[in-house]
Amino acid sequence: MPSINISVSYADHHRNKRKREHLDISHDGTHHHLLPTHESSHFLDGLKLPNILVRWIPLKHSPPSDQEPLIPSSQPQSSSFASKYGSCTEILHYGTHSSVRVYTRKSSRDSKSRQLHIVKVFRPSSQPSITSHYRLEQHLSSSLSHPNICRATDALRNDRGELCLVMDYCAGGDLNSFIATSGKLETVEADCFFKQIIRAVSFLHENGIAHRELKTENILLSAHGAVKIADFGSAECLVHSSEQSAMTTYCLAPRKLFGTVSYIAPEELQGEKVEDPRAGDVWTAALVYMAMRWGRLLWGIASEEDTQFGEYLSGRQTEEGYPPIEALGRTSRRNVVYAMLHPVPHRRITASNVLRSEWVHGVVVCDAGELGL
């Protein structure tokens, strides 16, 4: 079932008041976001933090050796982990080989000032694969530099000798929680977030990477409205072979069905051979946009057995169209969403063409989103 559950008991004037509080639109058409910040990290409950490409590696990259240096630290390696990042104040996720935690460091100058970081801690293991996964993760995460992608900022051992990856804390929470508390987002806000998402997706695709698990829970927000795509644990890298005309995949684990069922593209559900999984990212990005505009997901599963999805397939064949998409307003916006949600993957629009569309090209992104702040 769809993961976003919005209570209809919220009165419209209460929602509009909240929207005015977290979105400021200027007379010149620019805007900035004033998202509520989260002193506690409970907004991340149930969210898998960035397993940045831990399973996949493109052939153009070689796995880092044990002798390769980690991501350059912001402070000398002689500095203790505790002096740099403080102490663990909350455990967000506890897995078989690693845990994800919030670390809080108090300022030495101001006792009320705190700096938060997300730290993925790999527990000691005699299995070489665990260390290899850690080094592969930090190696690839450091190369994914984009304002709208959550990436590791430091890699080092903590005071107990455990391998750690450090990531910035996103004070605005995740998009799923934001929609759940705010309801439908205003067009300006949804379009701003969407363009940031598509920029990140296009960047990944141009580098031969498919995320494969885009959803509102995996999209983090800064306090000022910058989008950060997270959780690359299901990502897949595609490699263009000089001996072949098609893209082929190289992976470190067997292929399987990835993603939350409500977001999965129909070709994945039907068990078809997926030539290029990047088309699935385009599908899910469109569903994320519709979730922002409607405050809910459109259907439970992209199967004709699902009544809502069946209505979508029927609607796109008629002049009347599919009501939720038709209600988006501008023709250029509606056409792009329809193109992103084409049931046939090879006929689906690409992320780069979404960016070049009349609609998205004209969307104004806030300064924070442009800079990733």
Automatic annotation (TrEMBL):
<comment type="similarity">
    <text>Belongs to the protein kinase superfamily. CAMK Ser/Thr protein kinase family. NIM1 subfamily.</text>
</comment>
<keyword id="KW-0067">ATP-binding</keyword>
<protein>
    <recommendedName>
        <fullName>Protein kinase domain-containing protein</fullName>
    </recommendedName>
</protein>
<keyword id="KW-0418">Kinase</keyword>
<feature type="region of interest" description="Disordered">
    <location>
        <begin position="1"/>
        <end position="20"/>
    </location>
</feature>
<keyword id="KW-0723">Serine/threonine-protein kinase</keyword>
<dbReference type="Pfam" id="PF00069">
    <property type="entry name" value="Pkinase"/>
</dbReference>
<keyword id="KW-0547">Nucleotide-binding</keyword>
<feature type="domain" description="Protein kinase">
    <location>
        <begin position="86"/>
        <end position="360"/>
    </location>
</feature>
<dbReference type="InterPro" id="IPR000719">
    <property type="entry name" value="Prot_kinase_dom"/>
</dbReference>
<dbReference type="InterPro" id="IPR011009">
    <property type="entry name" value="Kinase-like_dom_sf"/>
</dbReference>
<dbReference type="GO" id="GO:0005737">
    <property type="term" value="C:cytoplasm"/>
</dbReference>
<keyword id="KW-0808">Transferase</keyword>
<dbReference type="GO" id="GO:0005524">
    <property type="term" value="F:ATP binding"/>
</dbReference>
<dbReference type="GO" id="GO:0004674">
    <property type="term" value="F:protein serine/threonine kinase activity"/>
</dbReference>
<dbReference type="GO" id="GO:0035556">
    <property type="term" value="P:intracellular signal transduction"/>
</dbReference>
